[in-house]
């Protein structure tokens, strides 16, 4: 008797973290389905990055879901607000998209339930990140309970496991994981403010954290940064 494939749905932004998480899910024996949300983000390069990652990893099913959050605005990623340069400051930066992971995880669970999957992977990180509240472990734990209470699968006793394997890793650790998994980091995209010629700016929060991570790990990142 042939065993049913284990299916996991990965929230795949196209960034380094989600690329690594998709590879970890595959390493754990899951058949990966991926959800990418086209939310009107100014860094639209990440949508092409997500497609490249799907092709490179042989992901079984990829949904790119349009959900234009520019209608709400409220973030430098979805409104005409300048993307700030990284200054290492405290507080939640203007690149925070209101309730983004709350909305995206709900969509990912909906995809998982329709696909017969009970495992959801997300690349949130609570150490080297920009202070977003929806990257914290307590949010992930709380959402797992919400998914149990608000879905047919949960009510019938099957529920969902929300995997956040990078939760307590530094960016340097994540860079090392990418190398261990044999990933081409140049396929991923992290920059919030691409240059007109399509290069990573190198100085936004996301670029700065990524560059520092690779430097701390003593590894070379294959991304082309402006002015590098």
TrEMBL record:
> Pathway, according to UniProt?
Purine metabolism; 7-cyano-7-deazaguanine biosynthesis
**Pfam families this protein is in?**
QueC
Q: Which domain of life is it from?
A: Bacteria
Q: What is its EC number?
A: 6.3.4.20
> If you read the UniProt record, what top EC class would you report for this enzyme, in one word?
ligase
Catalysed reaction(s) here are: 7-carboxy-7-carbaguanine + NH4(+) + 2 ATP = 7-cyano-7-carbaguanine + 2 AMP + 2 diphosphate + 2 H(+)
Residue positions binding Zn(2+): 191, 201, 204, 207
Kindly state which keywords UniProt assigns to this record, in alphabetical order: ATP-binding, Ligase, Metal-binding, Nucleotide-binding, Queuosine biosynthesis, Zinc
- Entry's family note: Belongs to the QueC family.
* Annotated HAMAP family: QueC
| Function recorded in the entry | Catalyzes the ATP-dependent conversion of 7-carboxy-7-deazaguanine (CDG) to 7-cyano-7-deazaguanine (preQ(0)).
Record's protein name: 7-cyano-7-deazaguanine synthase
């Amino acid at each position: 008797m042939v065993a049913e494939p284990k299916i996991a749905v990965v929230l795949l932004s196209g960034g380094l973290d989600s690329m690594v998480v998709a590879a970890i899910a595959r390493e754990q024996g899951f058949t990966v389905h991926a959800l990418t949300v086209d939310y009107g983000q100014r860094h639209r390069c990440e949508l092409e990055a997500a497609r490249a990652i799907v092709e490179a990893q042989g992901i079984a099913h990829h949904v790119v879901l349009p959900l234009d959050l520019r209608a709400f605005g409220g973030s430098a990623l979805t409104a005409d607000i300048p993307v700030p340069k990284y200054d290492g400051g405290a507080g939640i930066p203007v690149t925070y998209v209101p309730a983004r992971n709350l909305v995206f995880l709900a969509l990912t669970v909906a995809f998982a339930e329709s696909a017969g999957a009970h495992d959801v992977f997300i690349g949130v990180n609570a150490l080297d990140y920009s202070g977003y509240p929806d990257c914290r472990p307590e949010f992930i734990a709380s959402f797992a309970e919400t998914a149990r209470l608000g879905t047919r699968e949960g009510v019938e006793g099957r529920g969902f496991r929300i995997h956040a394997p990078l939760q307590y890793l530094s960016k340097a650790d994540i860079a090392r994981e990418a190398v261990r998994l044999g990933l081409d980091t140049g396929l991923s995209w992290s920059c919030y403010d691409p240059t007109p010629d399509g290069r990573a700016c190198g100085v936004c929060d996301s670029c700065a954290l990524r560059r520092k991570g690779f430097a701390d790990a003593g590894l070379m990142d294959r991304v082309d940064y402006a002015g590098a």
